[in-house]
Amino acid sequence: MLTEYHIEIMFEALSDSLSPRALGTMTKANINQDRLAGQFGHDEFHFDNNAFAKTYAYIEEQRALTIAALQTQNVVSAWQAFGRMTHTEQDFYAHSNYVTLWLERFNGAALPSPDDIDPLDLDLIHSPDLRSGRTYNPFELLYFVRRIRPRVLRFLPRDSHAWMNLDAPEQGYKFDYAMRAAIKRTRIEYQKTMAGLSRELIALFAGT
Ligand SMILES: [Zn+2]
């Protein structure tokens, strides 16, 4: 997803639960995953290239870092690890065909509203049909140069990130489903990460 949408997702998902300082620090760490150095050789940051096992390991590593940092009162490190983790989880809906597979179930029938999307349908998450976009680097970067985007798309295969992404509204109606799924998933991950922590640590993480 483009930076502004990661910021919107964080705000929509967590502004009721966290202070501006906490949410600001984690959101900066979230969007920093899209820095140029984070774009190459880091499939696990963005759910790219079907590197699912590596990506799930990265998510759990960041969750463990979040909890360990909180337990040693290192709240800024906890916010940053949580921000990195949520970036990956949000990109799942923009970089995989999860939304497409979910919508295909309603073939021929009226589509449900984006608000109705289930972000954690286990049948789809474990489906052999689940794919994420391949990054044909360095050419994927040219996709962002609007002037030559049509030529870049003709050059790149259909399984590329350039063809598959739901990073922005111009990708069509599926983008709204990716946004709603990412917002719901971010809330779920907050609850999951806080589960089992003391009231004091949850308050420390909230930064209130
Ligand atoms: Zn990303």
Give an overview of the whole structure.
This protein is mostly helical and about 210 residues long. It has one domain (about 5-205). Helices cover about 60% and strands about 0% of the residues. The chain contains 12 helices and no strands. The chain has helices at about 5-15, 20-30, 35-40, 45, 50-70, 75-95, 100-105, 120-125, 150-155, 160-165, 175-195, 200-205. Helix 1 crosses helix 11 (about 175-195), helix 2 (about 20-30) packs across helix 6 and helix 6 (about 75-95) runs antiparallel to helix 11. The longest helix has 21 residues, at about 75-95. It is globular, with a radius of gyration of 17 Å. It binds zinc ion. Zinc ion binds near residues 45, 87 and 91.
For the record, the count of structural domains works out to 1
Mean pLDDT: 96
Oligomeric form of this entry? single chain
Structural class call reads mainly alpha
Q: Nearest-angstrom radius of gyration?
A: 17 Å
The distinct bound ligands, ions and cofactors come out as: zinc ion
**Unreliable sequence segments:** none
Please state the overall shape, judged from the principal axes of the Cα atoms: globular
Q: Report the sheet-strand fraction.
A: under 5%
The helix fraction, in percent, is 55-70%
**Straight-line N-to-C gap:** 29 Å
